[in-house]
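For the sake of transparency, this paper describes our internal protein records without simplification. Because each token names a local backbone shape, the row as a whole describes the fold. One such record is reproduced below, unchanged from the form in which we store it:
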Amino acid sequence: MSFPSSLNAYSGYKANERPSEFMLDEYTYEIAEVADRWYEPEAIYFRVRTTEGKRYILPYDESEDEWSLQSGFDAEELLARPGIRLVTVDADVIRRAEEEIESCEHCNPDGAEIPFDNILDRVTCSDPSVTDYVLESAARCPNCRRPGSGKDFDQPR
């Protein structure tokens, strides 16, 4: 599970080389150390330690130019803070949301404008300003059957 985060990064020989601080709920967490870094197809992951001694995982999706805060280590307490409602989405709800989709960013690159979270907001009748989702399995485009990250489905029916 990831949560979008505003983040400042050091840019040396390339952009967003490593995170330097991230902001969440108007609070800035200064990063004292990047303890580990690893690469996966969907993102570069940074395990960091803040000046307060807390440890977090910050994935960076280069293709979307987007940082997020991932659950794990001390992030559990941040993701459980007041004002945020986590909704676990089971396979049945994912299938109902998929019925609302006509295509995705892969098979209709010019039409992708509505994030999958917005469709889940409608299906679950949740408040988008305070809800984040944990999906049991990946949602798939009904048109091309490609799995999505949660940000690339579009064209509600």
User: Anything to note?
Assistant: The two ends are 27 Å apart (CA to CA). Helices lie at 75-79, 91-98, 116-124.
